[in-house]
Structure formats: C-alpha cells, structure tokens
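Example record used in the benchmark description.
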Amino acid sequence: MDRRISGSTQLLGLIGDPVVHSLSPAMHNAALAAMGEDYCYVPFPVAAERLAVAVAGLAAIGVRGFNVTIPHKQAILPLLSQVEARAAKVGAVNTVYALPEGGWGGTNTDIDGFVQPLLGLEKGIPTLILGCGGAARAAIQGCLELELGPVRVAGRSPEKLQALQQTWPQVETLSWAELDRHLPETSLVVNTTPVGMYKPGSPAELSPLSREQLRLLPAGAVVYDLIYVPDPTPLLRMAAALGHTPISGLEMLIHQGAKALSLWLGGKPVPVEVMRQAARQQLAQIEADRARDPKPQLSSQS
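Model output (structure tokens):
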C-alpha cells in the first residue's frame, strides 16, 4: 500500500539506546499500512540522562504512544501519570500511551507477548525460568497468570533471587548448581539470560543449558528462548534435535508489539501475520548485514 506522510499523520514510536537495529519500526509500519491507518512509527534514540526531557518532548509534539526498551523500562516509571498494576508489580513498562486528560499511562505488553505462544499448554506444568533479571520478572508474571507451576527460577545472583521471591512468594528460587536435580521434572524451560545471543567475538555455540542437561528433560518438553538473534539459538537447535518443542523469542517480540499497537488504536484487531513477515524480513536483512560486517545488530526485545 502506498503510504503518504501528511500534516494529519499521527506519530507512534520507540525510545531506547540504541534503537538503530530494532525490528519494531518494520513490524508496526507494515501493520499500519495493511490497516490503512494514518500513523507512522519512528525509533527515537534517547540517552539515559535525557529521558525526562525526551518524554516531555514526545508529549509536546502530540505523539500518541511509544514503546520503551533498554535502558529505560524501569527508569520511566516515575515519569508516568499512571502505571497498570501488573506493570508496577513487574517493575517495568514497555508500552506508554497518551491519557485523555494529559500525561502518560504505562503498561507491560512484554507479559502478553511472552504468554501468547504458551496459551495451549496445560495448567500446572512444572516450569523452570533461567535467569533473574528484568526479562525473568515478565516471564514469572506470565507463567503465574497462565497458572503454570510449580514455577522455579534459577540464577546466579542471590540478591536478585531474593527480590523475586519477595515479589512472588509462591516462586521457588534455585542456585545454578541445583538445576540438574530439577530438570527431569520440568515440562517448560524459559531462557531469559543473554547466553546464546550473538555478540562479536563470542563462541558461536553458547547455550545456558548443555546437550546433556537438555537430555534430562522429559520427552517433548517445551524450550522457550527469549533471544531471537540468532534464530534459532544454539539452545533451540539442540532442543529440537533432541525432540523437544522449541519456541523462539521472536514470537514474544511480535505479540508484545501487536498488543501495544492494538492498545494505541483503541482496541482494533492487528494483522499479526503481517507483523511476523515484516519482522522476519528485517531480521534476515540484519543477519545478512552481520555476515558481511560482524558488529552488534540488535539491542533488546523491542
């Protein structure tokens, strides 16, 4: 569809640092074109020390909403007029929308994006989350909303693990050394760590779990890696080869974006498949560029 920018075109966007290789503009603009909406989604690079000025500026020019990525998902909370309850519980906002009375509201569609590929799972299945950072918090909330469990979280930071248990007392926390004991009874594994993400100079086959550890899982276990560069990750390639069910983090990215876009457009249905195709095309281009010039290509889930 031929899209023209005019004086009536409304703005949506993404703030973060960096945002240059984000897949979100391709996804959102493809969906907006398919829907015939007079909007344009723009990435805005915003340094941490300029966050408050940038948020005020976006309001001043009438931006209707924006996504938030690293390093602003926590820092933006005090700048919002209202924050939805589960975003406040997770302690992070990734989607901001203009309030009718002025100011900004914040929510966390990362949770919605995370759960979407898991909606067909049976309730009550034993779940293990690898990592205890910000992505783990969204994953924990999503798993509990799906009534999965027991939910266990393995990490290397006792302080972060303790903070998670204070927020979600029903979650069991494990040291990394305790993993093998629980793998045979785990039906869903979620990797929220950066291990396996492409980085220049890093070993090509890094994985948070070894092949031997993946063999400990029950037959047909679901292995969900929130990383999507490379796609598939070493973890997912090994899991698939052993007969487990792999889920790429690209699905989380697509569905969190679709939820955000629907919110900004007043609840209209969004063409998810259009967003998926646009994201995959952009990712293929990034992978091709990376092969020619191996520098970091993506910054975050957005």
